[in-house]
Specification:
Blueprint (H helix, E strand, L loop, with lengths): L2 H54 L2 H15 L2 H37 L6 H7 L2 H17 L4 H25 L4 H30 L8 H6 L2 H38 L4 H20 L2 H20 L3 H28 L1 H9 L5 H7 L4 H15 L3 H23 L6 H26 L6 H25 L7 H21 L5 H4 L5 H4 L2
Helix pairs in contact: 1-3, 1-4, 1-5, 1-6, 1-7, 1-9, 1-10, 2-3, 2-5, 2-9, 3-4, 3-5, 3-9, 4-7, 5-7, 6-7, 9-10, 9-16, 10-14, 11-12, 11-15, 12-15, 12-18, 12-19, 13-14, 15-17, 16-17, 18-19
GO cellular component, one term: plasma membrane
Organism: Lederbergia citrea
Keywords: Cell membrane, Membrane, Transmembrane, Transmembrane helix
Length: about 525
């Protein structure tokens, strides 16, 4: 197996493990600090992501590219200069933004978020900024050398340490108040990231073949051209991420003010937002790891076909990808919709928030489409168009949230509908952009057949819960049996409607074969 393929497989496996551990982390947090604590956590978290995005400036991708080019030429001096300049920039920015976040925390919590308790999680998470800054540089270095193992192991280590510490910290601080428990969960995140950095640093020290500290400041002073090269790649790359980070930052602010206009008290608004973003959304987005793996395989496949001007092959791979996303995403939606209450109960110890899943699940087929469509746009050199689509969709999301959530008849459901509306619009814009570039056939009959299969499976699944299980999944075994029967029925219907060929079933675990 080539170095590239081995690295890709390592990242894919680590990505799956990290996503599952991240989901377990959400479950542990929810069970330890409850919906209101999760709300405080989730309202503070987007601010951190925005600050980290500003600190990194897209440099991890630029570092990876620059190191790869330097290594290809055997230029160790250039590699050292890339590292020293990157560390100087990210550490300087992190030392600027970390105290800025701490100083801004009172204003953010009291004025923007309308809940003063968010101050504690904001201050608790601030020390993670310089840690992430240094980690991102080292990860970029290893990726540039096509050594994916350190980055992959560090991600898994971070999640494992975080989960272990959250249990201890949250339990220790819960008696002081929910805001302190949420802050403790943030501290666990900081220590998890610190453990990851220690591992990365140890691996870097063991693998590097040149002294970094020697003439460190001299390398920085002579690194103006290197900085320009890094920023020329990093700043355009960070465009889409910045749009997403800004949208996520404004989301809890708009939510809190909108719900206040609807007559919802700050504490209740925080709890409701926690149920939506900390309970329901992680479940709805969990199946996307399947389409993420598909997207990873799609980029080189479509890029190669497009470069050779084999547009027939591009269309074939596009159709296969969308079909796979539709059928697997459809199964996820059916299971989440039918078994929303028992799934929430078994995972979080409460069925609160199940209504959000039922409300949003039908729209999330568009979310599962988004990954493959974005990968195709990137493969066709349409990243700028994808960024514009993202900007329009996120603006729409914020607007719908404000209009609906501020009305008493919608309240927090307006937030759910706003998120769904933004997701649908971005996906439709991606779809339209691809259609404009590639003339491909839209099989309307396939979508009608899919609708029949999904609705029939939902109806029979609901019948199973109400009649066979008497409205109660009394054991985990009942839930698993119900999900298994529903999945089998869905697959049988797909085969009967000729949406799924029997040979396809052997291909599902191996996405790269599916699009070959």
């Amino acid at each position: 197996m080539s170095k590239f393929l081995r690295g890709t497989m390592i990242l894919m496996v680590a990505g799956l493990i990290t996503r599952l551990l991240g989901f377990i982390n959400r479950i542990v947090i929810a069970r330890m600090i409850g919906a209101e604590g999760v709300g405080l956590f989730m309202m503070a978290f987007p601010t951190l992501i925005l600050v980290i995005t500003l600190t990194q400036m897209g440099l991890p991708v630029a570092i990876s590219k620059a190191v790869a080019e330097a290594e290809a030429k055997g230029d160790k001096r250039k590699t050292k200069k890339i590292l020293t300049v990157s560390l100087a920039v990210t550490v300087s920015l992190s030392l600027l933004f970390t105290p800025a976040l701490i100083l801004a925390a009172p204003f953010l919590s009291k004025t923007l978020f309308t809940d003063q308790r968010i101050y504690y999680p904001l201050v608790a998470i601030a020390p993670i900024i310089p840690i992430v800054a240094i980690s991102s540089v080292i990860r970029g270095y290893f990726q540039g050398k096509q050594n994916m193992k350190p980055a992959a192991v560090s991600q898994v280590l971070e999640q494992a340490v975080r989960i272990a510490l959250i249990v201890f910290f949250a339990k220790s601080f819960l008696h002081l108040g929910i805001e302190y428990a949420a802050a403790a969960a943030m501290v666990a995140s900081v220590l998890g990231e610190l453990a990851s950095l220690i591992y990365l640093f140890a691996m870097f020290k063991a693998k590097k073949k040149f002294p970094v500290r020697k003439h460190f400041f001299k390398s920085i002073q002579s690194g103006k051209q290197t900085l320009q090269e890094l920023l020329s790649v990093g700043i355009p790359t960070t465009g889409s991420r910045m749009i997403g980070s800004l949208s996520w930052f404004f989301e809890p602010i708009v939510v809190s003010h909108s719900l206040l206009l609807a007559g919802v008290a700050a504490g209740m608004a925080t709890k409701q937002y926690g149920l939506l973003t900390g309970y329901a959304l992680p479940l709805l987005t969990l199946p996307s790891f399947i389409t993420y793996s598909l997207s990873t395989a799609l980029v080189p496949a479509v890029s190669e076909a497009n470069a050779s001007r084999n547009y027939q092959l591009v269309e074939y791979r596009l159709q296969q990808a969308l079909r796979f996303a539709l059928l697997t995403g459809g199964l996820a939606i059916v299971i989440l919709y039918v078994y929303a209450e028992p799934l929430m109960s078994w995972m979080y110890g409460s069925s609160n928030g199940a209504g959000f899943i039922k409300l949003m699940a039908p729209f999330f087929i568009f979310h599962y489409y988004q990954g493959p469509l974005l990968a195709i746009l990137q493969s066709l050199d349409l990243a700028k168009a994808a960024m514009i689509n993202s900007l329009i969709g996120n603006a729409m999301k914020i607007g719908v949230i404000f209009v609906l959530a501020s009305r008493t008849e919608f309240g927090i459901n307006g937030v759910a509908l706003g998120i769904a509306a933004g997701t649908v619009l971005i996906t439709m814009l991606h779809y339209a952009t691809v259609l404009k570039r590639i003339q491909f056939t839209i099989y309307i009959l396939h979508y009608i057949k899919f609708g029949i299969a999904a609705l029939t499976t939902c109806w029979i699944g609901n019948y199973l819960i109400k009649k066979v299980f008497a409205d109660s999944m009394s054991s985990l075994l009942d839930l698993l049996i119900g999900i298994l029967l529903t999945s089998l029925l869905y697959i049988i219907l797909l085969i009967c409607l000729k949406l799924l060929q029997k040979d396809d079933l052997t291909k599902i675990p191996f996405i790269n074969k599916l699009i070959a």
